[in-house]
Write a structure and sequence with these properties.
By secondary structure, the chain is an alpha/beta fold. The protein is built from 5 helices and 5 strands. The chain has a domain of 98 residues: HUPs (Rossmann fold, 3-Layer(aba) Sandwich). Strands 3-2-1-4-5 form a 5-stranded parallel beta sheet, sandwiched between helices.
Length: 165
Amino acid sequence: MYNAALSPRMAGAPFHRIAVAIDGSETAAEALGLAIDLARRYGAELLVVTVAPLPPVFSTPNEPLVPAAIPQSPVPRYRELIDAAVARARSEGLRSVSGICEEGVVVDEVLAQVRVHRVDLLVVGSRGLSAAKRLLLGSVSSALVSRAPCPVLVVHPATTPPAAA
């Protein structure tokens, strides 16, 4: 049971600045919807963050590190995600919403924005990776939960369809 006296950080309106990290996935869209709802309920600012991962460059140990072709930057696609997310938040009644698109290592860049903007709550989606895939690929949401300086709300993929209204 929650006790505000034991957790002064949560007393009153606990969230003044909420961030949501998006990547174009379905769970990121669900996380965005939840973050919009929370920001509206608490009268909080909403910061939408996305990170375009650095394109990989492959080379064998015996070859010089020169890519055969320069990979196309994913940044324009991620900027479109931010623009759409900010527009969605505004259309759902949020007045204080902004978006940031960075390029780099996803976890590091999201954490940097959380720190710079002094976020009170970070909302992220989980891809629901199997244990083997998590081991091989890593889990962004797990890394954020363990390293973020604020509470992290992880939205998992829906397992059952919503009930008919």
